[in-house]
Design goal:
The protein is mainly β. It folds into three domains: 211 residues, no CATH class; 159 residues, Neuraminidase, CATH 2.120.10.10; 164 residues, 2-Layer Sandwich (60s Ribosomal Protein L30, Chain: A), CATH 3.30.1330.60. A five-stranded antiparallel β-sheet has the order 1-7-6-5-4, with no helix packed on it. A five-stranded antiparallel β-sheet has the order 2-3-30-29-28, with no helix packed on it. Strands 31-32-37-33-34 form a five-stranded mixed β-sheet. Helix 4 packs across helix 5.
Length: 574
């Protein structure tokens, strides 16, 4: 049978009402995005699935005596199908296609090829595995349906150094020793691996397992060509984690099992730049809440770091990537009794928590995958559920390096570049830092406030004198696109001899005073024409210690005592 990708009409696309780079594709029934990658032209591609249910009537002249035969005949127009979207830097959809196949199917992984195309991995809902190779326009140039005679499911598709791919998943246990890929599995399911060449030809496929139920979750290729596999083992009432190393031909080298008293669920495996590895999983705490567990290990299965990150809410990491400075960005979800949000966290190389953000509304939101982009921004995909809705939608957002949400406006790049050029001297001398969301942080130690003080020092005044003239002149020249200049006061979190209420209110008042003193000093320096312009855009606020500076989970109290600035653009400039 000949398969093609059919172009879908763009139905209901919901953009954020702000300048945020956030797109929600609102279709009927449950839909999701599960993996994401950057293209060579700097667009962003993501895969997942959509569900289409179309009314259909029985073809004339054909009588069905079996209900399953009739349903199979209709399946090409019903149920979930793999879906590919491509977005440009302004979140405009450049390409959107869905694979209409005779079987219901879902995509789980997207791999970029050197030819600017893709490998897409997934499975059919009746238990077959799928490998598609697409060109840059999303057209299928190769399709493989493979697996065992039993029920199979793919978890991940990874790119290999020879240009091929490895499919990772699970297969219902083989009961016959005559099956040529049978190894040791005796449970209900086994780990299933299948290796393909760059041309999509299957090189080998093997199953691995224990007497319990095993499921392949993820894998990475080591520098020597061997493959590290992350899997899940279930026995009795518990779920545990297993790490395995196999050769490039699939022969088992070693296996390490992590047995826990509490349930542990495997999610992600990555290779670090130093050729070590990190496995991400969740583990239940004493309150039966999910907590993040990260294990760093080397090629010889030596454990280098095993850390559980305890959070207020149940938290899970579903994907994790490494920046060039060895920091990590991870995405997943945070859940309380009433709500689930998309979770993004920044970690240092020792798994110290640098920052975390929750995204979503009062409903179910979740992130499934993250890809670090060429400019150190990150593309994140998952699902979003609208308020008062029970159906999930495809969701893609772009984040800045500090995990603040990137802005859509094409003017944002121009203003960011203009500010960076204007304050090149101050940036190079480490007095200020300008972020891509157009926030300006004062980072020189002489520009922080002393404990409980809000009056400006002479060093602060000297800096703000030159800074304000340059900044206000630039904003006035670009006033057509400028909506607001925020001046925000901040404090550290302590306040001696006070309860929580007193500490917060005192810090809030102190942060307001710091913001106002800064605004007043800068405003009075300007001429009347500039003051008139500033009166329309200036806004000061006190944020107390809500944005305190953290380093390896510990508060840097000195750096927290500061003011910051943020330029906000007009919405009409999107």
């Amino acid at each position: 049978m000949h398969y093609i990708l059919a172009l879908l009409l763009l139905l209901n696309i919901t953009y954020a009402k702000t300048n945020d780079y956030s797109i929600i594709i609102d279709e009927a029934f449950n839909n999701a995005l599960l993996d994401v990658s950057e293209d060579y032209d700097r667009t962003i591609s993501a895969v997942g699935f959509v569900k289409a249910y179309q009314s259909s009537t029985m073809p004339k002249g054909i009588a069905y005596t079996n209900a399953f035969d009739y349903l199979e005949n209709l399946s090409s127009s019903h149920g979930p199908q793999m879906h590919l979207i491509k977005l440009d830097k302004n979140a405009k959809i450049k390409l959107r296609k869905s694979a209409h196949m005779s079987k219901f199917n879902e995509a789980v992984a997207l791999v970029k090829t050197p030819q600017d195309g893709y490998f897409v991995g997934g499975y059919t809902l009746d238990g077959s595995l799928l490998l598609l190779k697409l060109n840059s326009n999303g057209d299928i140039i190769l399709k493989k349906e493979f697996g065992t005679k039993n029920y199979d499911k793919m978890s991940k598709l990874i790119y290999l150094n020879d240009g091929g791919v490895l499919a990772v998943g699970s297969s219902t246990t083989t009961r016959s020793q005559n099956d040529n890929i049978f190894e040791t599995g005796l449970g209900l399911s086994d780990i299933y691996l299948a290796r393909f060449s760059k041309n999509g030809e299957k090189i080998w496929s093997k199953k691995y397992g224990t007497e319990y139920d095993d499921r392949g979750i993820d894998a990475v290729e080591a520098y020597d060509g061997s493959i590290i596999v992350l899997s899940q083992t279930r026995y009795d009432k518990n779920r545990d984690i297993t790490l395995m190393r196999v050769s490039e031909n699939g022969n088992k080298i070693w296996l390490k099992h992590f047995k826990n008293d509490k349930d542990s669920i495997a999610y992600k495996l990555i290779k670090l730049r130093n050729n070590n590895f990190v496995a991400s999983m969740s583990i239940l705490d004493d309150m039966n809440k999910e907590q993040i567990r990260l294990i760093k290990f080397d090629l010889q299965k030596n454990i280098l770091r095993d850390k559980t990150i305890f959070t207020t809410y149940s938290s899970v990491i579903k994907d994790i990537k490494e920046y060039s400075n060895s920091n990590l960005i991870a995405v997943g979800y945070a859940r309380d009794s009433y709500n689930t949000d998309g979770l993004v966290i920044l970690l240092d190389s020792d798994f110290g928590l640098l920052k975390q953000e929750h995204f979503g509304q009062e409903n179910y939101d979740e992130f499934n995958a993250v890809s670090i982009l060429h400019n150190s921004q990150a593309a994140v995909v998952g699902i979003h559920t609208n308020e008062n809705s029970q159906e999930s939608n495809m969701w893609l957002i772009k984040l800045n390096r500090d995990i603040s949400i990137a802005q859509l406006s094409t003017k944002t790049d121009d203003i960011y570049k203009g500010l960076s050029n204007l304050f090149k001297k101050e940036i190079n001398s480490k007095q200020i830092k300008i972020k891509e969301d157009l926030s300006i942080e004062l980072v020189n130690k002489d520009l922080y406030f002393d404990v409980s003080k809000y009056k400006l020092s002479e060093k602060q005044k000297d800096f703000l004198h030159g800074f304000s003239h340059k900044l206000f002149k630039f904003l006035k020249l670009n006033q057509k696109v400028i909506n607001t200049l925020e001046i925000n006061g901040h404090t550290s979190s302590e306040w001696a001899n006070n309860d929580f209420t007193g500490s917060y209110l005192n810090n809030e008042k102190l942060s307001l005073n710091r913001a106002y003193e800064t605004l007043e000093f800068m405003f009075k320096l300007q001429n009347n024409a500039t003051k008139e312009f500033l009166s329309h855009i200036l806004k000061s606020s006190g944020l107390a210690y809500s944005n305190k500076i953290l380093f390896s989970q510990y508060e840097d109290k000195k750096k927290s005592r500061r003011v910051s600035f943020k330029v906000i653009l007009n919405n009409q400039e999107n």
